[in-house]
Structure formats: structure tokens, C-alpha cells
Amino acid sequence: MSEALVENDPGHIDPEDMAAIVAALDGIAVGAAPTREHPAEDADDWTLCLHWLQQGPVSADTEAALPLVLARVREHYALHRRTPPVRLDVHGPDGGVLLSVSAGSR
After folding, report:
1. Most CB atoms within 10 A, among 9, 10, 11, 87?
2. For residue 2, with 0-12 CB atoms within 10 Å meaning exposed, 13-18 middle and 19 or more buried, which class applies?
């Protein structure tokens, strides 16, 4: 069962990228699946958005591991010479931002 949905931004995320994102989340024991396609952000400083499906806050362990997820995703993009996300935002079921992780944060 998925705990999070990954916004599928076709301008920045191709199927190989999505597989890498889902694998990075799986690596911290967060089951994830892609959502339907969302309009692409035009800017190079784009944000990877997750939608948390569970009620309540993100666990402390998951929150602490999200900088590693963002780092792994950014490494994947760097290996493919593509612009990586600068931030990872986690939205709650109501659409509000539960937390945000920026590149370089620990």
C-alpha cells in the first residue's frame, strides 16, 4: 500500500526518473506511486512534490530520512545531466505543506 504519491511532472520526470524516485522512497520504507500528470513547472528550480496519504504528521524517522531521498534523486538527475529538484515538499491530505526539504539540508 502506498503511503505517498509522487506528482508526475512530465517536464522534469520521465519514467526512469520516476522509478529512481520511487526506489529512493522505498529505500526509507515509504511506499510510493506516481499520481496523474501535473502541469510542468517552467523554472529550472523546480520542486519534487509528494502527497502524504496518512492522517497526521510524517514520522520523525521518515522526516529525518527525506534529505537522503532528495540527495539520491539529485544524484540520479546529475548522472543523467538533467536539472534536479531543488526541494522536496510533502503535502498532507488537505493539500497543505507538512514539511519541506531543501538541497543541502540535513
Report:
1. 9
2. middle
pTM over 0.90: no
Per-residue pLDDT 10s for the chain (106 aa) are: 689 999 998 889 999 999 999 999 999 999 999 997 766 666 678 999 999 998 878 899 999 999 999 999 999 999 999 999 999 999 998 889 999 999 876 5
d(CA 12, CA 29): 24
Sheet holding 32-37, edge to edge: 32-37, 4-8, 47-52, 87-91, 97-102
Q: Please name every residue paired with 5 in a beta bridge, in sequence order, or none if there are none.
A: 33, 51
